[in-house]
Amino acid sequence: MGEVLKVAMPKGRIYKKASQLFREAGIFIPDDVDDSRRLVIPIPEANMEFIMAKPVDVPTYVEYGVADIGIVGKDVLLEENRDVYELLDLGIARCRMSVIALPDWKPGIHLRVATKYPNVATRYFREQGEQVEVIKLNGSIELAPLIGLADRIVDMVETGQTLKDNGLVERESIFGITSRLIANRVSYRMKNNEIQELCDRLEKVMPGAVKS
Amino acid sequence: MSKPKGFEKPVGVRDYLPRATKRLRRIERGVLDCMARWGYETIKTPTIEYYDTVGIASSTSDRKLFKLLNNRGQTLVLRSDLTAPIARVASSLLREEPLPLRLSYHANVFRAIEEEAGREAEFFQTGVELIGDRSPEADAEVVALAIASLQAAGVKTFKFALGHVGFLNGLFDEALPGRSEDQKALKERLLHRDYVGFREAAESLGLNREQQEELEGILRLRGGREVCDQAAGLSRHPLALESLRHLCSVWEALDDYGVSEHVLIDLTMIGDFSYYTGMVFEGYAAELGFPVCSGGRYDNLLRQFGRDVPATGFALKTNRILDGVEDPSPEEELPVLIVYDAARRAEALAEAGRLRTEGQAAVTRLANETGESAEAGDGGRYARVLLFTGENAPASRG
Question: Would B40 be classed as within a structural domain?
Answer without folding.
Answer: yes
